[in-house]
Design brief:
The protein is globular. The two termini are 27 Å apart. It is of the alpha+beta class and 352 residues long. The protein has ten helices and 17 strands.
Length: 352
């Protein structure tokens, strides 16, 4: 499908008042509130538009698979710094940006939105809008491209994205330490204040895994400082891939999966269920049958928020409720970009 055809499909839906479900590979259909509307498949609008390894920037169409994009980057020894999860081989660039999710490297490298340089967006009127560009210093006024990260297609169809990339680390090594949750949180926050080449951390069930990335001297020095048992390369690679793609045994089971964001130094939340702690203490995954109100109240007391990330049965909103002012801002944005309210309605919040 061409760009013109995608625009025409949205114009037609707007004229009929018909809701559209913007969908690429569908690998993240579980995320957010239940999708609804006629499916507008974006996978045919695919391909890498431009890639300048020397400029550290790549531009790809929405239907391009993440696997294809990452394969092209790997050939030039480069990578997406935020290590996005795929959740399936069919994951696309458009879905990656729309979901706004980052993987284990996020605390060290930054979030997806930090590397989003520019976008082409088809709004709810079928108009093609261009924001940002292909260099870091090109934003005047509102940085709309970053606003689109995590919008779940409620503001428009993200047709193209220009993303800053980085060279792959010369060396990676992982170590594992036996620690209680309290000790792990303390250690992670202490190490955060030191010049250590830590690129990922994950604690669960009394084991703390730490990944080190960078120059050989930096990795060796950090390993000596942190201690622990070295993990074999193949085992470490499988572990971090399992954390990123939720294939690790921690994520198994029928209990709902909660994603709780809190300040890194937050003490243990003492919630029923099993936890995995990532991002130096700032991200707490929780597998639990506890009531949503109990989990969200605990997150709020810690000055954070909780998202119902994955569940067989949902009741209520996936994302934490917004205050009146925040909701009004969201409504104003939705009205500006999608006045007919046809694009992925209710996916973020029922009112949008």
């Amino acid at each position: 499908m061409s760009l013109d055809a995608l625009q025409e499909a949205i114009r037609d839906a707007a004229s009929r008042g018909t809701a559209l479900r913007l969908r690429g590979g569908g690998s993240k259909d579980f995320y957010g509130n239940a999708p609804r509307g006629e499916v507008l498949d974006t996978r045919s609008y695919a391909g890498i538009v431009a890639y300048e390894p020397s400029e550290l920037v790549v531009t790809a169409r929405c239907g391009t698979t993440l696997a294809e994009l990452e394969g092209a980057l790997k050939e030039r020894n480069q990578a997406l710094p935020f290590e996005p999860p795929h959740f399936g081989p069919q994951a696309t660039v458009g879905g990656c940006v729309a979901a706004g999710l980052s993987g284990p490297r996020r605390a060290a490298a930054g979030a997806l939105r930090d590397f989003l340089l520019g976008t082409k967006l088809i709004d709810g009127r079928g108009n093609l809008l261009v924001f940002g560009g292909q260099v870091m210093k090109n934003v005047a006024g509102y940085d709309v491209s970053r606003l689109l990260a995590g919008s779940l297609g409620t503001l428009g169809l993200i047709a193209e994205a220009s993303i800053k990339v980085l060279p792959r680390a010369p060396l990676e090594a992982s170590v594992q330490l036996k620690m209680t949750e309290e000790r792990a949180i303390e250690a992670l926050n202490r190490w955060a204040g030191l010049p250590l080449a830590i690129s990922a951390t994950a604690w669960t069930g009394g084991d703390l895994a730490v990944r080190l990335s960078g120059a050989e001297a930096a990795v060796r020095a950090a390993a000596t400082k942190i201690g622990g048992e070295p993990l074999p390369e193949a085992r470490a690679a499988a572990f971090w891939a399992g954390v990123r793609e939720h294939a690790d045994p921690f994520f198994a089971g029928d209990e709902p999966l909660w994603r709780i964001s809190v300040p890194p130094a937050t003490p243990p939340l003492r919630l029923p269920g099993r936890q995995m702690i990532e991002w130096g203490g700032g991200l707490r995954w929780l597998k639990s049958d506890a009531e949503a109100a109990v989990i969200r109240e605990a997150a709020q007391r810690a000055r954070g928020h909780a998202t119902l990330f994955r569940a067989e049965r949902r009741s209520g909103e996936a994302f934490s409720p917004l205050g009146a002012v925040q909701m009004q801002l969201h409504r104003s944005l939705k009205a500006a970009f999608d006045p007919a309210g046809i694009l992925n309605p209710g996916r973020l919040y029922a009112q949008l």
